[in-house]
């Protein structure tokens, strides 16, 4: 049985897949999603699957080009990217995600 199911501690980190199939990592407070790089290098692909207007796709592609960090306690709807204000958290979660990728954990996640 899982320790969490028995009242003990759960996972320290959780890796999941975004709607666009990109990996993200979270802990109890923070969710980190790595940037896709320059706009147009996969950014359009990940947002184009969602319905909306062309200007929404463009705005999302620009936003998704950079690293994103969300404070899930203060902002559970993930509306405010606070990566610039918390570079130490970005560095920690980015390193943890890269360590898991080095072990062979990569996208896309199978459903």
How does this model look, in words?
The protein has 111 residues and is of the alpha+beta class. The protein is 30% helix and 14% strand. The protein is globular and about 50 Å long. The chain starts with 13 loop residues before the first strand and ends in a 9-residue tail after the last helix. Mean pLDDT is 79; it is low at 40-49.
Topology of helices and strands:
Blueprint: E1 14-17, E2 23-26, E3 30-33, H1 43-48, H2 54-64, E4 68-71, H3 87-102
Antiparallel strand pairs: 1-2, 2-3, 3-4
Key phrases:
single chain; alpha+beta; four-stranded antiparallel beta sheet; 3 helices
Radius of gyration: 15 Å
Structural class: alpha+beta
Strand order in the sheet with the most strands: 1-2-3-4
> Looking at the structure, what is the overall shape?
globular
| Poorly predicted parts | 40-49
List how many beta strands DSSP finds: 4
| Residue share in β-strands | 5-15%
């Amino acid at each position: 049985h899982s320790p969490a199911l028995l009242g003990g501690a759960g996972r320290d980190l959780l890796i999941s897949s975004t709607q666009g199939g990109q990996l993200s990592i979270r802990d109890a407070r923070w969710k980190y999603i790595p940037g896709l790089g320059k706009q147009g290098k996969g950014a359009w692909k990940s947002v184009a699957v969602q319905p909306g207007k062309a200007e929404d796709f463009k705005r999302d592609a620009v936003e998704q080009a950079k690293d994103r960090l969300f404070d899930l306690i203060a902002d559970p709807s993930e509306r405010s990217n606070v990566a610039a204000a918390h570079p130490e958290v970005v560095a920690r979660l980015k390193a943890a995600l890269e360590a898991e990728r080095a072990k062979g954990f990569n996208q896309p996640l199978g459903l």
